[in-house]
Design brief:
Blueprint: H1 2-7, H2 12-17, E1 22-28, E2 31-39, E3 44-45, H3 47-59, E4 65-67, E5 73-76, H4 84-90
Length: 96
Amino acid sequence: MVGAVARREDGLVGVASRGAGIGAVHGAGLHLGVELVRDRATKEPAAEEASALCGRMLELGVIVQPTGELENVLKIKPPLCIRTTRTASRTPWIAC
């Protein structure tokens, strides 16, 4: 349920469709990966941007780690006790 909220149109999938530098949203349930790219057409990895975004999210109280071979995928694994309302309120931070 919570993972579905994060993926729906007003969640990560919606942010990705608005061209926010998201190449793809991977995963299911509570374990999600958001692939950051500099150019959606070429899929050029955005590793520096991913690192900066992780730092900013940490300042906001959300722990997100860059991962993947190119370090441009944000690994999102919220605590298992998270509520749907908290998930929905955190999704827009990716677009910051």
